[in-house]
Structures are given as C-alpha cells and as structure tokens.
Amino acid sequence: MTTGRTAGHGPLTGVRVVELAGIGPGPFAAMLLADLGADVVRVDRPGGTALSIDPAHDVTNRNKRSVIIDLKAPDGPARVLDLAARADVLIEGNRPGVAERLGVGPRECHARNPRLVYGRMTGWGQDGPLADRAGHDVSYIAVTGALGLIGAPDRPPPVPANLLGDYAGGSLYLVVGVLAALHHARGSGVGQVVDAAIVDGTAHLSAMIHGMLSAGGWQDRRGANLLDGGCPYYGTYETADGGYMAVGALEPRFYDRFTDLLGLADVRGARTDWTRWGELREAVAARFATRTRDEWTAVFEGTDACVAPVLSLREAPHHPHLAARGTFTEHGGITQPAPAPRFSATPTAVRTAPALPGAHTREVADDWDVPALAADLPERACARTTATTATTAVKDLPHRGD
C-alpha cells in the first residue's frame, strides 16, 4: 500500500484511489472506498458531467478530494498518469476503449505502476455484442431477468429506482473486485484489471433464485412465488390512510403471530394451501384497510410477526431503530446514510462534505507529490464550477461517455 498522509480513518487508511469522474455506480463505489478510509481523489472534467446535481449536495462525493483535469488537453493524460503512478487503485466508468483513446488505459497506467488495480465500471462489460451500446440501470436489469421478477403479473414491471443494477449489481461488485485485487497485489506485487459489469453483478445476485428454479421451487413468471409478491404473507398492503405495511411472515411461528395480531386466526390454515392464497390475500387486505399505518405499526411493534411500515426517504431517518443505531447521519446540513458496514477497531465516519470540483488541486499536488498538477493552478481555478452543467451528450452515457 502507498504510505503518507491520507484523508481519514477506517480500514482502508493508507490506500490511494484515483476516480475518473462519471455518474452513478462509479462515484458510489469510490464513495464507499472513501467511507472506508481510502484517500480518494476524484478527477473532474471541466464543465462537469451530465445528469449531475449541485456538487454541494452530491453525497456520493463525500470523504473525497477533487482536482480538475481536461483529459482532452495535451497535458491532461500525463497529469492523470502522474496520479496513477502514486495510487493503489484507479476507477473509471467510460465505454470500452475510451480510456485507451484518451491515453489513460490499463496499459499506460500499468507501465507507470505495475501494482495498480484498474477498476472498470460499465453496464454491459468490456466485451460482448452490446459492449459499445449505451444503457442505464433499467436496461441492464431487464436483460438479466431481474426486472422480470418484480411486480404484479398483470402490469408492467415497476422500476426499482436504480438501486438493483447500478449500486447492488454494479458498485458493490466493483468494490469487492477492487478489494480482492488489492489483496492479490499486496502479496504478488502485480496489479490487474477488474471488469465490473452491471449485467454480471445483477445476474450473480439472482443465484439463489436460479437454484430454486432448477429445483422446481420457483415458477418463471411474476407474482407466483414465495418472494415475488405471489405469496399473501410476503408482500405489501394499503392501510386506511393511504399508507402501506410490509409483511414478511414466512416461517410458521411468525405467520401464526401475524394472523393472531391481525385477527385472522380463522384463515391460518391457508398458509400451506396455495389454492386458498387468493382468499387469504383478500382477508389480509381487508383487515389492513381498517386502520391507519401508524395504528398497525403500534399493533405489531415489538413482535416477531415480521411486519413493518413502509416509510418514505424523509421518514426513514426518524424510525426509532434507525435513529438509535445512527443509520443516518447529518453532515453539513445534509441528512444522509452513514457509512456501512461498521468496524470495531477502525471506525468510519462522514469526515468531509461533498468535494467541489477542483477544490483540492493544490492540496493533492502537495500530498501526492505531483507538482505539475498545480503548475497552472490560477488559470485552472478560474474553470472551477460550483454547479455542474449537462455538457455531455446523452449518447455518451453510461459507460460513461468520453
């Protein structure tokens, strides 16, 4: 690992990461590494990236530092390679071949730093018929079968924000790959390329369901299975005030407690009789419709019935359990999820607000011993922005433009 001054505390203290700015899963993966203590330097492009929010509110850039480098300028690639030479990890999310055309691909980086872990975040991957095509979360989870698992059978599958593909199938797999490759590099002195494709990660997430499908325990259609809304005691129900309750009473003893508290002991036998599931669903829905969400929350509070209220993003930080654990935190006036997971010996924290583009150029130049980075700082500082603009064409996103 690289030694020297680092950005904070956590199990990855001492690890240096270069992040080539993009959108979605790449920045989130870099945020996770930064949350874990790595010194993450984000290389922002002049003018920012498309689909960005005000940088002061972009929580995925917390715990990082930022420099601005124009990779299309004559000296741009050399500045990035100077950083790569001093880094342990580089993350980029361009379409296949773009980093190579810009002169900052794996070959150029490994020539300067053979131990470097070069993380590549794309939707379709580095090869295959669709590798050069544009796409977004919904495109990737659609072809993997994951989107087809969700929703009522008589309606189009609902879009689950971009959590399933971009972040679960993308960011988290990139981080796992980077950490595994770092472990290998520390022992062997040899870096490598990590090809993290959202389609691969999302497909991998469905491993258990593929096993159930093979064993005959899962039907290949929506709304007909234990975990896809087909089961009346694993799903959501509307309450009298338009709220919703989530039910997950799968095991017999949890189901019995659920039906007791709901006042439906007379239909308890429908649990294992799928021909009565329609009857059970109607009975459960009718009962939930008689009280408000808060009233039902009070009924099930402190029980093992596996029932919880469906909260909004603004409500979630105030849930008693999440508040007690500090699952959410406030920093710089922004309520946001706290770093996860937690460590007993190397605790993590939100140390800094989102890095504004170019705000740390001189600091990084000194810390990483890259004087050329700040050689023309006054001129480059003039290009610094406080709010990014959508200057990248949609056709360049994601994987993630050039």
Contiguous runs where pLDDT drops below 50 for at least 5 residues: 2-7, 379-402
Major sheet strand order: 3-2-1-4-5-6
Structural class of the secondary elements?
alpha/beta
Overall geometry:
elongated
Task: Give, in order, the helices and strands.
Answer: EHEEHEHHEHHEHHEEHHHEHEEHH
How would you state the average pLDDT, rounded?
91
Amino- and carboxy-terminal Cα gap: 30 Å
Radius of gyration: 24 Å
Could you estimate the helical fraction of the residues in percent? 25-40%
Which band does the percent of strand residues land in? Answer: 5-15%
Largest sheet: 6 strands, parallel
Number of strands: 11
Summarize the structure.
By secondary structure, the protein is an alpha/beta fold. The chain has helices at 25-35, 76-84, 98-102, 106-112, 137-143, 163-188, 198-205, 207-215, 252-262, 277-288, 293-300, 320-325, 361-367, 377-382, and strands spanning 16-20, 39-44, 64-68, 89-92, 117-122, 192-197, 234-238, 244-248, 307-309, 328-331, 334-337.
